[in-house]
Amino acid sequence: MFHNSIRAALLAAAVASMTYGIYRGEVPEVLLKAINLCLECIGIG
Amino acid sequence: MVDLKRKLVQLISAVTLNSYAGGFVQGTIYRGPLKQVCVPVLNCYSCPGAVTSCPIGSLQALASGVAFNFSFYVAGIIAMSGVLGGRFSCGWLCPFGLIQDLLYRIPFIKFCLPLWTRYVKYLVAGLFVLVLPAFALDAFGLGTPYFCKWLCPAGTLEAAIPLALLEPGIRGALGALFAWRLTWLFLILLFCLAVRRAFCRVFCPLGAILSLFNHISFFTISRNEQICRHCGQCNEVCYLGPAPAPVVNHPECIRCLKCVKSCPAGALSWNFQGRNKEEGVFYG
């Protein structure tokens, strides 16, 4: 039972972290990077 | 049977995550809204077929930009995946994991790595994914995604090679960095022929982060001490063996469940949230 409380708390922290990231506008940055060719990934950058 | 089931899930995952067929025809990448979503597997977002984002690439991209030094959004997704399943996504969903699994089936000299090599991936995650992209900046305050640039074989295999073949413009721009990337990819693939999941074990930063959750995730493997015969069969079949016996939920465990299926005494079982899938026994 103790373990499950820790798990639940960690899951809540993960969701909170994700929500905070969405709130401060990280998602458009992720999208912007992902829809443009990653030059470093290809070996040009 | 469990291995066949896993292969099928891995294949479905690889095809689904790279289902933008038009990219492979036109030599372009998918630019739709699904790219906002990071799926916790190593699958390059510049692969012509990729429909979602790579969490490791996104972590570095945001850290190396001017707006943020760290991505709480991506970290939250990775942590959520870790808390729910530990390294489950490594074993069942990762397309680059599937490539490594298939390579290891090819007859070649096989050997085991010394156990200390597993710690290299934590250095890679810390240095190349978190620290250098955020703090090694150029004159304009911009960083570089060091892991993507120097160490990611998935990017070369899934993005660089297909795009170079499909797009003359890209082909013409390739230089010394691409030559390094090809050499590195060749070495990694060779390494994977000889060592099972060599890249996962030694270099994968996503595996390193997810491994931190293996002991505490909702999805766990339990061993019933009362019926365990200590025969060592679980270690014999362990995917990332030799594991230090008799540890279940070891950080290297990718939840392939071979140990569960091979246990002659039936002492091992997988469970979610402490609840045994077959008997409903609570292990806590």
From TrEMBL, chain A:
Protein name in UniProt: Thioredoxin
Native source organism of the sequence: anaerobic digester metagenome
Taxonomic path: unclassified sequences, metagenomes, ecological metagenomes
TrEMBL record, chain B:
SUPFAM superfamilies: 4Fe-4S ferredoxins
Listed InterPro entries: 4Fe4S_Fe-S-bd (IPR017896), 4Fe4S_Fe_S_CS (IPR017900), Electron_Trans/Redox (IPR051684)
PROSITE patterns reported for this sequence: 4FE4S_FER_1, 4FE4S_FER_2
UniProtKB keywords: 4Fe-4S, Electron transport, Iron, Iron-sulfur, Membrane, Metal-binding, Transmembrane, Transmembrane helix, Transport
Domain 4Fe-4S ferredoxin-type, first and last residues per copy: 244-273
GO MF annotation terms: 4 iron, 4 sulfur cluster binding; metal ion binding
Cellular compartments per GO CC: plasma membrane
Segments traversing the membrane: 72-98, 119-137, 173-195, 202-221
The keyword Glycoprotein is assigned to this record: no
Protein name: Putative electron transport protein YccM
Phylogenetic lineage: unclassified sequences, metagenomes, ecological metagenomes
Protein encoded by which gene: yccM
